Amino acid sequence: MIKTIRLNPEEVQDFVNAASKCDFDIDVSYNRYIVDAKSFLGVFGLDLRQPLRVSYNGFNSMFEEFLKRKTIAC
Predict the structure, then answer these.
(1) pLDDT per residue as tens digits for the range 39-58
(2) Which alpha helices (H) appear in 1-74, and where do they start and end?
(3) What is the structure's pLDDT at 73?
(4) Eight-class DSSP state of 71
(5) CA 27 to CA 66: how far, in whole Å?
(6) Which segments in the chain show pLDDT lower than 70?
(7) Total domains in the fold of the chain
(8) 73 Cβ partners below 8 Å, 6+ apart?
(9) Fewest CB within 10 A of the end CB: N or C in the chain?
(10) What pLDDT does 74 receive?
(11) Which domain holds residue 25?
(12) Are 34 and 27 contacting, i.e. CB atoms less than 8 angstroms apart?
């Protein structure tokens, strides 16, 4: 699945915690940069003023609930 979200700096830790509980790979990208969603420094290093693209293949209800709150229309 691919979703577009926005995060503010205060939400990065919550996002990484939710992603870390998933047993599948999750990537976050902006422009040419792709980072592991389970890496706090990786996600925090992205330009959080821009929409971020989250790519994953799996299902975790807590992660989906977090994404639902942060998803933006493209």
Answers:
(1) 999 999 999 999 999 999 99
(2) 12-20, 40-44, 61-70
(3) 77
(4) B
(5) 15
(6) 74
(7) 1
(8) none
(9) C
(10) 62
(11) 2-70
(12) yes
